[in-house]
Amino acid sequence: MIRRTRYFAPPVLPLVHAAASCTLVLLGSFAGGLLAASAESPKSKGGNQPLFRLEVQDGHGVVVADSGKDLRHSDGASAVLAFDHEYAAGDRIVVTGPSRIAVRVDDWMPECLVYLANSPQTTFSFDIPYGQGEPQTRSPFSRDSFTGKWHRVTARSLTTQELSGYRNLAMNACDQEVHPPGVEGTATQQQASVFPHASTNSVSRSLPDFRARNAIDGMTQNGHHGIWPYQSWGPELRNDLWWKIDFGRPVEVDKIRLMVRADFPHDSYWQSAVIEFSDGEQLPIQISQSAEFQEFTFPKRSVSWVRLNKLVPADPARWCSFIEVEAWGRDQK
Q1: Nearest to 213 by CA among 154, 164, 170
Q2: Sheet of 78-84, strands arranged across
Q3: How far from the centroid of its chain's Cα atoms is residue 155's Cα?
Q4: Less Cβ crowding at N or C end of the chain, within 10 Å?
Q5: Mean pLDDT for each consecutive 10-residue tract of the chain (333 residues)?
Q6: Pick from 254, 267, 189, 179: which is nearest to 223 by CA?
Q7: Are strands 243-260 and 63-66 parallel, antiparallel or unpaired?
Q8: How far is CA 27 from CA 14, 34, 35, in A?
């Protein structure tokens, strides 16, 4: 049952004035909200926030998939490319956008926080790995990655925490060897454009599962050697070895963490080394036979690269390797 209540009607004129006042207040609040939202929203059209563009190109540079206008947000802060294509040798992913991005090249890969060196067009490029056996480029990656016909690539701008927070500045599962490889400090050396970037003067039998990039891919499964998930930086038996992490810009670091490959007794380990910094300083360290991370702290310093040099093996007749190397600190403001 609906209960009807009788109200006395007030004079009309005060109600009109009240309604008009409320309308003006609401309109003013709505307009103010629009102005505030416009001021707080990321710059898109005509602003400094570049739009992302995601492409997949074949070995001849022909675009086989393109994000085009299919952006997740109209402000361009992120983009997704989902496409149907079976990868072939020579295919690559190309991302155009701001110089600091987080990109995921495959759903089976971790997201990569990378810095792109300044250029007329800031571009991230990733060559699709292929092949299954140890001599193939795919050996440091999961067998499930980059397979099938359905793929997804994502890219986004970094958060404030990622830009200024304390983190492992060395990790980059998307790092790749610069082609053609050259000798550091010579005219044949090729410059990297995507950072962090790992390099070395030795890779055992030139196999992909022993390249320098394997020590910054975030994988720390220990106790064996070879293809994924046991990829590592595994050099030849030499006494002039070095391994280097290049950040591509000045950063502040205060800690290095190392994990040796612990496939004992197949492996030995480096019992000592020297950490070299781009500012010219050096830090001698002692390394133990352990499967866990070993941590080396020092006063905060501004550097653009860190190198492990003068590596002394406990047993020169056996293999030594690093599963992972971390450099902890912050980006310089």
Answers
A1: 170
A2: 78-84, 150-157, 100-104, 112-116, 194-195
A3: 10
A4: N
A5: 38 40 39 34 43 93 84 69 95 94 96 85 90 92 95 95 96 87 54 92 96 97 95 97 97 98 97 98 98 98 98 97 98 84
A6: 267
A7: unpaired
A8: 20, 11, 12
